[in-house]
Write a structure and sequence with these properties.
Elements (H helix, E strand, L loop, with lengths): L22 H15 L6 H12 L8 H14 L11 E6 H5 L12 E7 L2 E5 L15 E9 L5 E12 L6 E5 L4 H4 L18 E3 L10 E9 L21 H10 L1 E4 L12 H4 L1 E4 L1 H9 L3 H16 L16 H14 L2 H4 L6 H18 L22 H6 L3 H18 L15 H17 L1 H22 L4 H14 L1 H21 L4 H10 L4 H11 L5 H27 L9 H9 L3 H15 L8 E3 L2 H4 L4 H13 L11 E3 H15 L4 H17 L5 H22 L2
Parallel strand pairs: 2-8, 3-4
Antiparallel strand pairs: 1-2, 4-5, 5-6, 5-10, 7-8, 8-9, 9-10, 11-12
Helix pairs in contact: 1-2, 2-14, 2-15, 3-16, 3-17, 6-8, 9-10, 9-12, 12-14, 16-18, 17-18, 17-19, 18-19, 18-21, 20-21, 21-22, 22-23, 22-26, 23-26, 25-28, 26-27, 26-28, 27-28
Length: 725
């Protein structure tokens, strides 16, 4: 039997070449499309294609979604399942956040999808011997379950067979076999309460809709399998006419193995015995690798198909009153088959047109629905569209779509919603787009706005990252595993946030040490944070060995954290200097004041005040969370506490838990002037600075207002003392 779907369902052709993923090719295609647009009678689909290529690109800055996913993973990594202090959760970001590298204008991520598995459980294919070596995240004791086929493809049972114990000498694992007793030792799945049309399985839902800029989180519990499953044994070796995926990608996919998710088949969920014991093979890891290897054209196509299916309400949804027929997984399967079976010329032709590509793929999906046949991409004998699906009129709807019809739909349901995101009533440009020239003018304005606001997006990402990293580190106790996860996830996103986390983590440990003794847990955390900083690591652990040197250790951690924060400021300033004002020596000045070097603090702070005072709208902030409070003096600590009393909302709003760089610099400058007994003339000039700062920067910021009033009061008192009444 052929390993390919019927040619009536998916036409042949496709190869993947890294060369045509380059920016040179895409830019040449955009230029070609732009030249066509100059024609009054051009095809609307060409305008839509150019718009999509210009607005659905790999962003130059970190994405907000990636940062939130990293935070969720790190927090999850610090938790223990069932209050077991020995076991840990190992998270993996999946779904849209992990699959897409483009960032379209319209929302393309509904929530954060995350899989997580116990580091004390492992699954192996039936008949395979247990491994003697495991990745570092696994525990010293691991229970191993054998994957047993059920009567349905892709659905299995997990039978407990072995216990692995790690040897302290060589770190290898020895195993002992359990007695066979299937009724007792079949692992129960995690959740049988799933919608009957759900393809992906059970999810532990965390609603963050009440928190600004945060997406809800779907956390799916699974059991890790390090081996490629025999149920998909023919996938790596099947014949591929057009070379995608290539051998390197195939190797990465197979080496990642798979996971087993606790959900029964929809036909078995009502069965009291099977419904609690059936699991499903998950290839999310493979899908992430494959989809990230797609060209930009293919990622945009995948995005558009999902938008069309969702907007037309053809997928499973709480708003649907009738049985749904499709899910995003069917669209993903369609795209995976198309990428393997479509030729390079089909994706990259002289008449390159994204709308045409989407229309043809929807026509193919129509055939699949009519035949109720959707071959699983990895498992040969698994059909994702059986007779239980209600196709209704959806198949006819897809078959009737052509390039012109889909172009009109995209203008009204994709490009116009993008215009709503833009200011200045840009949507009015679409009131009369009966000719291509006017439509082109309208979409060009959207593209220009997106390009011009790119840096502002990065500023928001920086603000989001700083607040959430600090908030989660402060609120959740760090563990070695969570530190590793923080550093790995942030390093993948942006080096700057990795540096920022390391500084915050050092301050967190310093705060713990100053209040309690240095525990073995804190030592391990420090070793994890400083593993690549050998000189600092040596100095820290020299002090760790001396139990009476806690103050010196705290001082060293403060110094190392300030150095990292200064580096972080310098890295951020390189990109945001054109839209905002950020000085890079604010933490140095704060640390100089703390250690009593008032002359150095005054020099840095005065320079910072002159830079920041008459700056524009965007000015960087210094947080007043407990980790940073330890660097500040008693007056700032007291004002922060007063702010929390006066305005309780400050506990949940990032702007109210920070002080502006200009305010803090003015505070430090003033305090140093008073301690160094500066002249009255100098103090009068400082009063002018304070007045300007109050008018320009401190409105609706309680902590900034209180700080400026305090130093103004101190200056007046000093002047009265010198001049007399």
């Amino acid at each position: 039997m052929s390993n390919r779907p019927d040619l009536q369902c998916v036409s042949l052709g496709f190869t993947q070449r890294h060369t045509w993923r380059t920016a040179h090719y895409l830019q040449s295609r955009v230029k070609h499309v732009d030249s066509v647009m100059a024609d009054e009678y051009c095809d609307i689909s060409e305008i839509v294609t150019a718009f999509l290529l210009n607005t659905c690109r790999r962003p130059p800055w970190p994405r907000m979604y990636d940062l939130q996913a990293a935070v969720v993973c790190a927090v999850t990594a610090g938790e223990h399942p069932d209050d077991d202090e020995e076991a840990e959760f190992i998270p993996l970001t999946t779904g849209s956040v992990a699959e897409f590298y483009i960032e379209p204008m319209l929302p393309y991520v509904g929530d954060i999808d995350m899989m997580f598995y116990w580091n004390t459980l492992l699954a192996i294919p039936q008949g395979h011997p247990p491994a003697t070596q495991l990745p570092a995240e696994f525990h010293n004791y691991v229970e191993v379950f054998e994957i047993i086929d059920s009567h349905l493809p892709a659905y299995v049972y997990l039978l407990l067979r072995y216990r692995l114990t790690q040897c302290t000498e060589n770190k290898n694992y020895n195993y002992s076999e359990f007695d066979e007793d299937e009724e007792i030792k079949l692992l129960l799945n995690t959740d049988n309460e799933v919608d009957e049309n759900d393809v992906h399985g059970p999810a532990l839902f965390h609603d963050n809709s009440h928190i600004p800029r945060l997406l809800s989180v779907d956390g799916v519990l699974c059991v890790r399998c390090l081996s490629w499953p025999p149920q998909a044994a023919d996938w790596p070796t099947r014949h591929r006419n057009y070379g995608w995926p290539d051998s390197t990608t195939l190797g990465r996919v197979v080496c990642n193995g798979c996971d087993v998710v606790g959900v029964a088949h929809r036909q078995c969920r009502q069965d009291e015995w099977i419904g609690k014991r059936q699991w499903r093979l998950s290839f999310s890891r493979a899908e992430i690798v494959l989809i990230n290897s797609w060209a930009q054209v293919q990622q945009i196509t995948y995005h558009l198909l999902r938008v069309y299916i969702k907007t037309e309400r053809l997928t499973e949804s709480a708003h649907n009153s009738v049985s749904s027929t499709l899910s995003n997984y069917h669209i993903k399967t369609l795209m995976l088959w198309a990428c393997e079976l479509k030729s390079e010329s089909w994706w990259r032709t002289e008449n390159f047109n994204l709308v045409k590509i989407c229309a043809e793929l929807l026509n193919t999906l129509s055939v699949w629905l009519t035949d109720r046949r959707c071959r699983h991409y990895f498992i040969n004998n698994c059909n994702l569209l059986d007779n239980s699906f209600n196709v209704g009129t959806v198949a006819n709807k897809f078959m009737s779509l052509d390039k012109d019809c889909l172009s009109a739909w995209l203008v009204n349901n994709y490009i116009k919603p993008c215009a709503k995101l833009c200011p200045n009533n840009m949507l009015l440009l679409f009131d009369d787009v009966r000719c291509c020239a006017k439509l082109q003018n309208a979409v060009s304005e959207i593209v220009r706005w997106k390009r011009d606001t790119s840096l502002y997006h990065f500023w928001r990402v920086v603000d989001f990252a700083e607040y959430n990293i600090l908030h989660k580190v402060s609120a959740c106790s760090l563990t070695v595993r969570s530190c590793v996860c923080w550093m790995e996830e942030l390093a993948k996103i942006d080096k700057r946030f990795f540096v920022y986390f390391s500084a915050v983590a050092l301050l967190h440990v310093a705060r713990k040490v100053s209040r309690n003794c240095l525990s073995d847990k804190l030592k391990d955390i420090l070793l994890t944070i400083l593993q690549n900083d050998f000189s600092c690591c040596y100095s820290v652990f020299s002090l760790c060995n001396n139990k009476r040197s806690a103050p010196e250790l705290v001082e060293l951690l403060h110094k190392s954290a300030v150095e990292r924060l200064t580096t972080y400021r310098q890295l951020v300033a390189q990109d945001v200097g054109s839209i905002g004002t950020i000085v890079t020596t604010d933490f140095e000045a704060l640390y100089a004041y703390k250690r009593g070097d008032y002359q150095q603090c005054l020099q840095l702070s005065t320079q910072n005040v002159r830079t920041l005072l008459y700056a524009g709208r965007y000015i960087a902030e210094v947080p007043t969370f407990p980790e940073f409070i330890q660097l500040m003096d008693d007056d700032i600590v007291s004002l922060t506490a007063l702010t929390l009393i006066v305005s309780p909302k400050c506990r949940t709003h990032s702007n109210d838990t920070c002080i502006l760089q200009v305010t803090l610099s003015l505070y430090l400058m003033t305090r140093c002037q008073l301690k160094l007994h500066h002249s009255v003339t100098s103090l009068v000039q400082t009063l002018f600075y304070i007045d300007d700062a109050e008018r320009r920067h401190s409105r609706r910021r309680t902590l900034d207002q209180l700080t400026l009033k305090l130093i103004e009061h101190k200056v007046y008192l000093a002047m009265l003392t010198r001049w007399g009444p």
